[in-house]
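Lecture notes, continued. The same structure-token format from the folding unit now serves as the input rather than the output. Read the line below as a description of shape only.
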């Protein structure tokens, strides 16, 4: 029988390797090697506001989650903490803006077809981030390696992140999910989260009730 372990990873080399080869989400995927090294060493391991969780099955890496309580301005904070990376970060930011513009320009009005209608509540307002620095947790990225997908590892990672937040007294956790990412939306549902389809099409995932309850139980 296989055993799953979720740990808050403190191994800089391991985190750097994951950021370099497996982290496929913007903006981190476009960071330079040096920026990723700094992210791994001075933030993922040393910054208590950043949480890098690793899922292992029988000792094998199966997935990871990168979250934090720094709010949506996380990369500005990272740039001001690490001014030597500011130029390359500004470049990544500019490329991302151009890329987003091209994607929006190309994309037809999209709908999530593979989810039953009642699984996504529509909210008639643009995508919001509820958290600011310190008052809420944000899941930046959760990834399960292809050979381990479909085994509910992501929901376990998400719940483990919530537990970390409860431990830190953070009452609220949220995430942004691409509207086409049905697997991710399902994983958040399985972790007990609510998901909302916003006016701009993006999906806002939120777990206020669960985390609030945990914080109350905790203290
Ligand atoms: C999204 C992701 C993290 C889900 O992880 P997971 O551990 O496979 O999650 P689950 O096992 O709960 O499965 C969630 C859904 O994925 C789909 N799924 C199941 N098996 C799958 C497989 N082998 N391959 C791809 N998707 C699969 C199913 O729709 C499933 O929902 P269901 O169980 O209600 O049918 C994972 O697919 C992944 O790493 N994707 C690439 C990175 C990504 O998109 N991350 C999310 C951005 S925030």
């Amino acid at each position: 029988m296989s055993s799953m372990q979720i740990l808050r990873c403190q191994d800089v080399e391991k985190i750097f390797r994951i950021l370099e080869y497996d982290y496929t989400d913007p903006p981190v995927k476009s960071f330079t090697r040096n920026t990723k090294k700094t992210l791994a060493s001075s933030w993922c391991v040393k910054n208590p506001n950043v949480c890098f969780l690793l899922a292992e099955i029988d000792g094998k890496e199966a997935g990871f989650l990168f979250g934090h309580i720094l709010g949506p301005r996380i990369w500005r904070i990272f740039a001001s903490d690490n001014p030597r990376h500011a130029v390359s970060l500004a470049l990544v930011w500019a490329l991302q803006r151009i890329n987003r513009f091209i994607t929006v320009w190309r994309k037809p009005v999209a709908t999530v077809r593979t989810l039953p209608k009642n699984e996504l509540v529509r909210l008639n307002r643009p995508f919001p981030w509820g958290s600011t620095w310190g008052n809420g947790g944000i899941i930046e990225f959760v990834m399960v390696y292809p050979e381990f997908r479909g085994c509910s590892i992501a929901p376990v990672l998400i719940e483990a992140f919530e537990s970390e937040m409860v431990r830190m007294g953070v009452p609220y956790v949220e995430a942004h999910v691409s509207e086409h990412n049905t697997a991710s939306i399902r994983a958040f549902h399985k972790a007990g989260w609510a998901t909302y389809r916003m006016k701009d099409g993006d999906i806002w995932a939120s777990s206020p009730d669960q985390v609030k309850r945990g914080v109350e139980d905790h203290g």
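Point for the exam: The CA atoms of residues 22 and 216 lie 36 Å apart.
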